């Protein structure tokens, strides 16, 4: 009897400790987004005004323009813009991507990049912007990615330490024993995932200067 009571008490203690750990972790994540600061405006669009013939390309080929700028109080380090999904040909080597920005802050000139892609390449290509910002006592990388053809924008979200541990255990169990939906769990990502999002615009970075007050 006393063994059952001891086991119950131990189980409750572990559950309370895990709950406390999750709460603290959630508070740290929330404080990160409040304290780090900084806004970004990222856009990728096809410029049909350069060549009218590009408008009729059903596969999305044409001239594309990429723009990335920052605002707010945050400082962004090691900002890079890259193009992915191109076939392994000389075409990808011909595209000279923008130079690395060691730091970017509000008021700095935006990163702009204009390039041309044929339709078959534009269908599979996507642009990614990466940077590093201070987080607690260290730094953390962040990223945005956008498909050229559909314009869908995604942000990279790192999993918390608790989530990584849980997903590691799930993947280990799925690889060792036969479990329902085990095929997908065997390749469970451990560190992060892309999440659909939306971006600010250049006007958003201006704050109240971009919108007049009501006249009434």
Q: What is the radius of gyration?
A: 23 Å
Architecture of the largest domain, CATH level 2? Sandwich
Would you report the number of β strands? 9
Structural class: alpha+beta
Q: How would you describe this structure in keywords?
A:
3-stranded antiparallel beta sheet, 9 strands, 216 residues, 2 domains, alpha+beta, 6 helices, globular
Task: Please render the helix and strand layout as text.
Layout: H1 2-36, E1 39-46, E2 62-71, E3 76-84, H2 90-94, E4 101-104, E5 111-117, H3 119-122, E6 126-135, E7 138-147, E8 153-158, H4 161-176, H5 182-186, E9 192-196, H6 202-206
Antiparallel strand pairs: 1-2, 2-5, 3-4, 3-6, 6-7, 7-8, 8-9
Description:
The chain is α+β, with helices and mostly antiparallel strands. It folds into 2 domains: 1-36; 38-156, Immunoglobulin-like. 32% of the residues lie in helices and 32% in strands. It has 6 helices and 9 strands. It has helices at 2-36, 90-94, 119-122, 161-176, 182-186, 202-206, and strands spanning 39-46, 62-71, 76-84, 101-104, 111-117, 126-135, 138-147, 153-158, 192-196. A 6-stranded antiparallel beta sheet has the order 4-3-6-7-8-9, with no helix packed on it. It starts with a helix and ends in a 10-residue tail after the last helix.
Question: What's this entry about, in short?
Answer:
The protein contains six helices and nine strands, in the order αβββαββαβββααβα.
């Amino acid at each position: 009897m006393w063994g059952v009571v001891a086991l119950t008490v131990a189980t409750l203690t572990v559950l309370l400790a895990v709950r406390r750990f999750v709460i603290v972790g959630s508070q740290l994540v929330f404080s990160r987004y409040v304290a780090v600061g900084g806004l970004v405006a990222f856009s990728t669009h096809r410029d049909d005004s350069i060549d009218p013939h590009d408008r009729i390309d059903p596969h999305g080929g044409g001239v594309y323009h990429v723009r990335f700028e920052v605002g707010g109080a945050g400082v962004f380090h090691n900002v890079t813009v890259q193009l992915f999904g191109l076939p392994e040909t000389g075409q990808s080597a011909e595209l000279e991507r923008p130079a690395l920005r060691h730091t970017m802050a509000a008021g700095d000139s935006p990163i702009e990049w204009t390039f041309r892609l044929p339709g078959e390449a534009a269908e599979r290509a996507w642009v990614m912007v990466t940077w590093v910002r201070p987080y607690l006592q260290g730094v953390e990388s962040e990223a945005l990615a956008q498909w050229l053809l559909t314009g869908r924008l995604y942000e990279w979200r790192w999993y918390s330490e608790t989530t990584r541990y849980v997903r590691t255990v799930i993947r280990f169990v799925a690889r060792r024993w036969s479990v329902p939906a085990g095929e997908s769990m065997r390749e469970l990502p451990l560190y992060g995932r892309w999440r659909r999002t939306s971006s600010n615009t250049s006007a958003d970075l201006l704050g109240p200067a971009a919108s007049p007050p009501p006249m009434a």
